Amino acid sequence: AKGAALSRSQVACPQQSMAALLLCAPAISGAFSGSAMLQSRVARVQQTTPAAPQMSLGVDLTGKVAFVAGVADSTGYGWAICKALANAGATITVGTWPPVLGIFQKSLSSGRFDEDMVLADGSKMEIAKIYPLDAVFDQADHVPEEVLANKRYAGLDGFSIAETAEKVKADYGAIDVLVHSLANGPEVQKPLLETSRAGYLAAGSASSYSLVSLVQKFGPIMNPGGAVLSLTYIASEKVIPGYGGGMSSAKAALESDTRTLAWEAGRKFNIRVNTISAGPLKSRAASAISKGEKKSFIEVGIDYSRANAPLAKDLFSDDVGTTAACLCSPMFGAVTGITLYVDNGMHAMGMVQEKAVVQCQD
């Protein structure tokens, strides 16, 4: 439905519905007789098992531990990624912003999210542990006194990135998947020409440098072959009026840092770093960007994409979730430093085909 929150009640199992398989389809369905194709690992398996009528590619993350930073409700992409990883067998841990930690924990314990926690096999997703995390603070001595005195942080100990990494290490020893699913721009409703220096820098601190800091602190406790994933938006490279406050610049920095971190963290920790450029979703965070007279910024974006994208269909949170599970799996073990678009192809468009933005505002 137009303008509705797009989130399927049940995330499809990556083994059954994987965006990556679309990329692999020609190699899977085509003839394996070519000499170049026979050099691939997939083809070698095909050679040794000629009786098999078809190949079955699945994501199995059993025994793997994932830490997803920036989960506070069941409406966003972070939650969908958690479900997809859980569907693949991973142990799920999350980092939640302290001011909303209590509400999130209460919602979980009260059963508010129960329907959204059902996995493909009918079981309920388990979040093994929730850590308080404020990703604008790299270490304990960076937290100002006024924050420590704030009642929303009362009773919490060790919520900086470094302290959280140490807690995760103490609990699990090492992790295999690190997901950056957080962003914040205090002046996001302001055009760039009206954005203050403080607002601009705050957007970059929370939305892009936080990825750098997470890789710095979590990289040493990641198993070789592990994967880091973040979420970006098309405003990093094209003008999206309404996405202000320096957030477009922050996303551009995030994508650039993804490439640099892929090199540096790849060589230092033997891990991969990628980002997904996701289409518009009416999550709680996105709904707060701006309010229009009839529709919000995100509602207009959803309708515009639905009308003009190559794939004329709604984008669901689990479309991103299943893609994330694939990118974080050994199936994509040679893929790093990329920005992968999961937006029904909207990024490829250069001209409006059916509806202009003004038509989507009614």
Question: Can you describe what's shown?
Answer:
α3 (77-87) crosses α11 and α7 runs parallel beside α8 (247-269). By secondary structure, the chain is α/β, with parallel strands linked by helices. It contains twelve helices and seven strands. The chain has a seven-stranded parallel β-sheet, with helices on both faces. α3 (77-87) links the parallel β1 (65-69) and β2 (91-96).
In angstroms, what is the radius of gyration?
21 Å
Mean pLDDT: 85
Per the principal axes of the C-alpha atoms, what is the gross shape? globular
Secondary-structure element order, N to C: HHEHEHEHHEHEHEHHHEH
Helix content: 25-40%
Oligomer: single chain
Strand proportion = 5-15%
| Low-confidence runs | 1-50
Count of DSSP helices?
Answer: 12
Separation of the first and last Cα atoms: 15 Å
Count the E strands.
7
Report the sheet with the most strands, covering strand number, pairing sense and barrel closure. 7 strands, parallel
Give the structural class: alpha/beta
Spatial arrangement of strands, main beta sheet:
3-2-1-4-5-6-7
